[in-house]
Structure formats: structure tokens, C-alpha cells
Design goal:
By secondary structure, the chain is mostly helical. The chain is built from 3 helices and no strands. The longest helix has about 30 residues.
Length: about 80
């Protein structure tokens, strides 16, 4: 069961990374096509900034897991 939890955490972070990348691409598309709808533009822009902030954190966590081992990374998350 413990091994399953480990792979779930890494899998979750990898999926989060993929979702963020896809979201950033989609949000950029919607921002460009928002036209004169400034309220929609502002909403999409705020979402884009959030995703752009989140992606480096997720990538860093995956890199840390590779460098320091998952067990050590998990203890630092507590």
C-alpha cells in the first residue's frame, strides 16, 4: 500500500504539470480572442497568472523528488 501512495503522489504531480501546461495554452488562446470583453479578459488573465505561478512549483517538486528521493521529500511536506 505504501508503494501505491508514492506512485500516486508522483503521478498526481505529473498530471498537475500536464494540466497546467494545457491550461496555459488554452487561456492564452482565450485571452487573445476575448476582443472587447474586458471582464472576460480579466478573468482569463487572472487564471493564466495563477497557472503560470503554479507550474514552476509543480516542476520544482518533481525535480526535488528525483534529486532527494521521494521519502525525504515526503518528510519535508509534513
Amino acid at each position: 500500500m505504501y508503494h501505491r501512495m508514492e506512485s500516486n503522489i508522483v503521478d498526481y504531480l505529473k498530471m498537475e504539470q500536464q494540466v497546467s501546461i494545457a491550461s496555459i495554452d488554452e487561456l492564452r488562446f482565450y485571452i487573445v480572442n476575448a476582443g472587447d470583453d474586458y471582464k472576460t479578459y480579466d478573468i482569463f488573465k487572472a487564471c493564466l497568472l495563477d497557472e503560470e505561478d503554479n507550474l514552476p512549483w509543480t516542476e520544482t517538486q518533481l525535480q526535488l523528488i528525483e534529486c532527494v528521493d521521494l521519502q525525504y521529500w515526503l518528510t519535508k511536506q509534513m
